[in-house]
Design brief:
about 50% strand; about 190 residues; mainly beta; five-stranded mixed β-barrel; 2 helices
Length: about 190
């Protein structure tokens, strides 16, 4: 879920910029420091939007810069348990598909895609069903539910988001459209 959050953090202003400590400079330093960082409390910081207040600077022994506490707004992405998300398949592997959901990827394990057996086609980078001829490939749009979440703040790339698409209304968007059209044809709507 995307949120706009009011945050506080400390930023180091290098000595060459001490004459120009402006909200724009502090915003740029905060962006360099925080954007893309994962935090257990707020999720992933997508963008620092606006600096509201810059506190008094503090000097630390044996450190060249001056440290300022800043109060600012940021756009964050914090995936919530049981949240339904739309994403795009970014990679297909033998055990499932990685789905880009916001600034992170979630794993849609092969057992959580369909009740049908899906075979991995390495040559075409896809998962395919022999029963219904359905195929899941890179670039496909999917709707899934977040079922597991393990955030690694030190190494955001190691964070793990588990997804499922086995519930009604979830799955590849093309498959969902086909099912709706079949239901409409069967009911005569």
């Amino acid at each position: 879920m995307y949120k706009r959050a009011r945050l506080k953090d400390t930023v180091e202003v290098p000595p060459e910029h001490l004459a120009e400590v402006t909200p724009e400079l502090v915003k740029k330093l905060l962006q360099d420091k925080l954007e893309g960082r994962m935090d257990e409390d707020v999720g992933s910081v997508v963008s620092v939007v606006k600096v509201h207040d810059i506190g008094d600077g503090a000097v630390l022994p044996n450190r060249p810069g001056v440290y300022y506490e800043a109060d600012f707004d940021a756009v964050t992405y914090d995936p919530q348990m049981q949240e339904v998300v739309d994403g795009e398949v970014v990679e297909v592997v033998n055990f499932g598909a990685f789905v880009g959901i916001g600034p992170v990827d979630g794993l849609l394990h092969v057992s959580q895609i369909s009740d049908e057996y899906l075979a991995y086609d390495e040559e075409n980078q896809q998962l395919a069903s022999r029963e219904s001829n359905r195929v899941l490939s890179v670039g496909d749009s999917v709707r899934a539910r977040i079922v597991t979440k393990s955030i690694d703040e030190r190494n955001p790339r190691e964070s793990k988001i588990g997804l499922t698409a086995k519930q009604p209304g979830l799955g590849k968007l093309g498959w969902l459209k086909e099912e709706r059209e079949k239901q409409q044809a069967a009911t005569g709507e």
